Amino acid sequence: MTMNFITIQEALTELLGNGANGQFRVCGYSVEPESGEAIRNENAAVAVYFSDAKIPKSGSGFNGPFKFDATYNIELSISSSAKADLETLNDPESSQVDRAAAMTSLQNTRLLADQALNTLIECVFNIIFKPEDVDLGLDVGIARSRWIPSITKEKPDYAGELLISQAVMSLTMQITESISSDDLEPLVEIDLTLNLNDEPVGQAGIYENYTVIDYLDGEIDISTNLIGIQYTDNRNLDGEISVEPEE
Amino acid sequence: MTMTNLREQAERFLATSLEDRDLFALPVFITYPDGEIQELSGQVVSNTQDAEGLWTGRPAVTLRLSSLNQVLDPTKPLHVRIPKTPELDGDLEDYVCDKPPRTDKGLGIVSLRLTRVEQSDAEVEV
After folding, report:
1. CA distance B7 to chain A (A)
2. Which residues in chain B have Cβ-Cβ distances shorter than 8 Å to A82?
3. Which of A115, A124, A151, A184 gives 20 to 30 Å between its CA and that of A194?
4. Domain residue ranges in chain A
5. Percent of residues in chain B assigned helix, strand, coil, to nearest 5
6. How crowded is the C-beta side of B126, counted as CA atoms within 13 Å?
């Protein structure tokens, strides 16, 4: 069974992807920063990843359910260029006064980058806090009390001829996890074989075979098998007994 | 015979090392803040190194300071056109220099780090 914090990350990615409406693209966690060309305009990148969780012991049972506040980071990246009236600047017929006016109206790259990032933050914020998506499209109770406690802008940085601006939105919510061992592989299997009859020579011995399975949730299964075995007396040259069971 | 010092000779040599189009120089067109356009020759690179030696991929042009018609105002942007490809008659591409130029008066050169510029009537971003 998939844990809820993973389900919520997938739901968040889907929610943002459905709400993007061609204004940005939702991508997975990326270790390498994207190139400036790859995150231009409507290709602005929004990445969602599980960041951290504080799990207070007092709020949970020893074997669950576990209640905790989880934090997801939503990373926003967009690149920008300057803007100017190039038609006037490159027009051989334009006068020096016209070009001076065009130079005055030139829009600075940093200002445009900041505006583009603000717009991107606005888009994502509105999608997450849509009243109808209070449960992120999941069953009621899986993700509760979604909240964005912080939005942090990074210092813009040049990547080639474009300026990349980034922001990280923290999204917190309350999650409850229940552990199920139904489809878990056993972690440890210990085969404890006890020889209840310590005199095998020429006797019928009884072995009791214990199998102990320790599941993740602390539950332990012990299965026993009683096996009847007929032994024969075989001694080697050193006088040690080797046992050859006969069923 | 008048002797010139080594720096003066080096600055004169920029006419060859920096501005000779038969060597490495390419045409550079600058529009100053007052609208004046000047055609210059300079070194054009599309990959520049930052202070840590990393390749940033940011285009830059290096010009001979004494060839400029105007003293550059670090608070005002410049419009710069350079060839897309390293060909003297190649198509020109538009850039702006909206960060203060790096001027080295000792060597007599100025370096302009360029940023892409697009037509302002283009669609609003995002």
Report:
1. 33
2. 77, 96, 98, 115-118
3. A184
4. 4-177, 188-246
5. 10, 35, 50
6. 27
User: How many independent structural domains does chain B possess?
Assistant: 1
Residue B125 lies in a domain: no
Rounded to a whole number of angstroms, the distance between the first and last alpha carbons of chain B is 67
Q: Determine whether the interchain pair A97/B35 forms a contact, defined as Cβ–Cβ distance below 8 Å.
A: yes
- Show the domain range for B74: 6-116
Looking at the partner chain, which of B35, B96, B120 has a beta carbon nearest the beta carbon of A96?
B35
Architecture of domain A4-177: 2-Layer Sandwich (3.30)
The two three-digit tokens of residue A61, written as one number: 């049972």
- Whether residue B19 is contained in a domain is answered as yes
Question: Are A95 and B117 inside 8 Å of each other by CB?
Answer: no
For residue B57, being part of any structural domain is answered with yes
Contacts of B94 (CB under 8 A, 6+ apart): A84, A86, A89, A90, B79, B80, B81, B116, B117
Per-residue pLDDT tens for A53-109? 888 777 667 777 788 889 999 999 999 999 999 999 999 999 999 999 999 999 989
Q: Which CATH number belongs to the domain containing residue B96 in this structure?
A: 2.40.10
Residue of B93, B120, B121 to mutate, testing the A interface (most A Cβ within 10 Å of its Cβ)? B120
Q: What pTM does this model have?
A: 0.72
Interchain contact, A96 vs B95, CB within 8 Å: no
